Amino acid sequence: MNAYSAFDQFEIIRLLPIHPFGNLDISVTNATVFMILAIVTWQYLVKVNIEENGTIVPHRWQSVIEIVYESMYDVIKDNIGKEGSKYFPFILTLFVFIGIMNLYGIVPYTFTPTSHIIVTFGLSLSIFLGVTLLGLVNYRSDYFAMFMPAGAPLMLAPFLVLIEFVSHLAKAVSLGVRLAANITAGHLLFAILSGFTWTMLTTGGILALLSIFPFLIVVFITVLEMGVAVVQAYVFCLLTTIYINDSIHLH
């Protein structure tokens, strides 16, 4: 029997193999299940909120939804302005989708899709293409003026354009890499400390007694990971609103 590895939690498992055309693989995996579960969870919370709406004192789920709603609205208002309200449904959905997937990953024997770069890069690339098209629709050829800072010497134009162009392309990578790296690092640390604690506990003797210290650290890491899960979703959406603002208000 193979020894357990901290990396086993990131393994993608095909639950329902589907290969309709040769090498085309559209199988249902554990990643697929938890993406769908994130959507279903939010729909359930919203449904509960609607059914119990009208109470004088907001119940706990209503309070959570209101906090999420207000936080995302403030992000859009502060970074885009009033005209950004039409992007609110997208930003809210993005935050909820990423946040719930991150939180589910803390539960033992679950899977975190956002720990895989293919998932996070797919999100960041889609956003990059969207904001680029938005800028082209709003400004057409003038959109490319963003690659040349105003007031810069003409002789530096080739270097500045290249730097700005590379910086612009980096948006497609930075969003996804940041999210996946933070989630993966946290989960690896959690798995290693949990395994260490369990080993001490099952060894017995004085080590079992001393296992209380790494156990307390694991509890602290768990709480910390819950905060990181929400913060990373927030940062992802915050940067997305900044990119949208750059496409609306060309500098």
Q: What's a quick, concise take on this entry?
A:
The chain is mostly helical.
Average pLDDT reading? 82
Strand count, sense and barrel status of the largest sheet are:
2 strands, antiparallel
The low-confidence parts are none
| Anisotropy-based shape | globular
Strand content: under 5%
Class from secondary-structure proportions: mainly alpha
- Can you write the helix and strand succession as a string? EEHHHHHHH
Q: How many β strands by DSSP? A: 2
For the record, the count of structural domains works out to 1
Strand order of the largest sheet: 1-2
Rg over CA atoms: 22 Å
Distance between the termini: 60 Å
Number of helices: 7
- Helix percent reads 55-70%
List keywords for this structure.
mainly alpha, two-stranded antiparallel sheet, globular
How does this structure look, described?
It is a single chain. With 251 residues, this protein is an all-alpha fold. The chain has one domain (8-248). It is 69% helix and 2% strand. The chain contains 7 helices and 2 strands; from the N terminus they run ββααααααα. It has helices at residues 30-51, 60-79, 88-104, 117-139, 157-203, 205-210, 212-248; strands spanning 14-16, 28-29. Strands 1-2 form a two-stranded antiparallel sheet. α1 crosses α3 (88-104), α2 (60-79) crosses α3 (88-104) and α4 runs parallel beside α7. The longest helix is centred in the C-terminal third of the chain and has 47 residues, at 157-203. The chain is globular. The mean pLDDT is 82.
Write the layout of secondary structure elements.
Elements lengths: L13 E3 L11 E2 H22 L8 H20 L8 H17 L12 H23 L17 H47 L1 H6 L1 H37 L3
Antiparallel strand pairs: 1-2
